[in-house]
Amino acid sequence: MSNLTTELASVATAVDLTGTVYGYLAILLFALAYILVPFENVIHLRKSKPVLLAAGLIWILVALAYLGAGDTHTAHEAIRSSLLEYAELFLFLLAAMTYINAMEERNVFQALRAFLVSRGFSLRIIFWLTGLLAFLISPIADNLTTALLMGAVVMAVGGDNKKFVGLACINVVIAANAGGAFSPFGDITTLMVWQKGKVHFAEFWVIFFPSLVNWLIPAAAMSMAIVNTGPKMLDEKVSMKYGARAIMAFFLLTITTAVCFHNFLHLPPVVGMMLGLGFLGPLSYHIKLHEGRSERYDYILGTRGAESINPITTILKSKLELSDIIEKVAMPAFAIDNDHNITHWNKACEEFTGLPAPKMVGTRNQWQPFYDKKQPVMADLVLNYMPEKAIERHYAGHFKRSTYFDGVYEATRFVPSLGENGRWICFTGAPLKNAEGKVVGAVEVIEDYTDKAAAARQFDLMKKISRAEWDTLLFFYGVIMCVGGLAQFGYLAVISQYMYHDLGATTANVLVGLLSAVVDNIPVMYAVLTMDPSMSHGQWLLVTLTAGVGGSMLSIGSAAGVALMGTARGVYTFGAHLRWTPVILMGYAAGILCHLFLNARLM
């Protein structure tokens, strides 16, 4: 591919298109499209849409320009080269994102969050812990995912303390960007540098200490502004689901596979990542069998359907014994026989109600956790010959019948006796039948919608990531095609000549980082890689560092900052971040000086 790029560059040099009307129109289109990107959260227009439109129009202009010069071949070969580069990065990111989504579904991130918010750490300790974890997690999980995860912790612990939440969010953004700079998996820009072969996998560690300094200096300054008080301790317990540790191990194995493919087999890393994605297939099938879901097809790896499936479906369709399957249900569930005696009371039900199974099984006290006096629960009602009339009396206007299973009903009710301030509960009941179709009992599954609503406010990050991922991938396509098109007009060659020849590599690479604070670092880094200036290995490490951490200077300078502005709306703002920009700039300069000193032999 390097030979093809060289040939294209020579053709572009031979046919000077920088002064053509087509070239000027291409620059105008890119500028107009990119002006809309930083205002995504203001105008509610996803950043991928304008750049996708601009990309298509720019390549029309490229084709017309070359046709005008009598060349019918160059534009075709150039766009194929850009598409190949995008395809490699797209599949690589898709595999990584799938693993992140799989770990989220197995409660890996929720368990970490629950551990942090339930320990009663002081605000200053939470500030440093979230920053440190953001710095250490982002090299693996990418800076966007990490920032949203740690931001959820900050908002859960900080509560109404807006000053703490604002400072801690700034700290998380800086730490996540700094941590992502010394790993190919930490940011799209570092991934591009690695896949282009400019920096080898192990060589990213050379900029570990400069990245650390970049975070520590502003973090130390901001921590002094935090009142070291203890927040309200939150009682939250989340356990990782079955298979979570295996998925984490497979993800590390996938990373190793990608590195080995690149270093030893001299194959593109994306091939190793896709092989790693294949590892997840059999594991997900094993988890499905373990949870008694062998009758259902999985969704595509890393995705979920539009609606979650209630565990009642799993119970009714499972071929396992009731005692086995009901214990595997993650939600509170119990079963009764035809005489309304409790026969099963799962562990989740014990934890939710505080009533142990030995005390409940064999009794008719299924009403006790929810009501002050004895009355039938949903499981009791579905045993009736005509249950809907009885259900209507108890849940008037707040129930619905299942469209998939006969005799299954779902109702919602506020239960004031649960928790400190009451809970909103969804009750789903279904009759149990034997092999002859005779009703032999009923099962009830309980879902706490209060916690679900709270989780949506505090930890609805993976749904945001799921939406942002595809938007980011399409945005990435638009950027690569736009920049590739501008390169064909010869503009990048002109910029490269000015920055890397006239100004010098060090000055140019420092400016790249400053530019990343205003313009997304993806097009900036892709432009540098497309220019492919002749510079030392130390300079390639420097531009990797500056492009990765430069976006921290403004809240709109990185995906992590933009995402946190959305989740901590009104608290973490552009203005709040801007007040600390001078301190962040000090960290930026210190990180560069650290690199120039520690890695002088490479410069």
From TrEMBL:
One of its GO terms (molecular function) is antiporter activity. Its main location: membrane. Keywords: Antiport, Ion transport, Membrane, Sodium, Sodium transport, Transmembrane, Transmembrane helix, Transport. Belongs to the NhaD Na(+)/H(+) (TC 2.A.62) antiporter family. SUPFAM superfamilies: PYP-like sensor domain (PAS domain) (SSF55785). One of its GO terms (cellular component) is membrane. CDD domains: PAS. This is Sodium/proton antiporter, NhaD family (TC 2.A.62). Signal peptide: none annotated. It comes from Desulfofustis glycolicus DSM 9705.
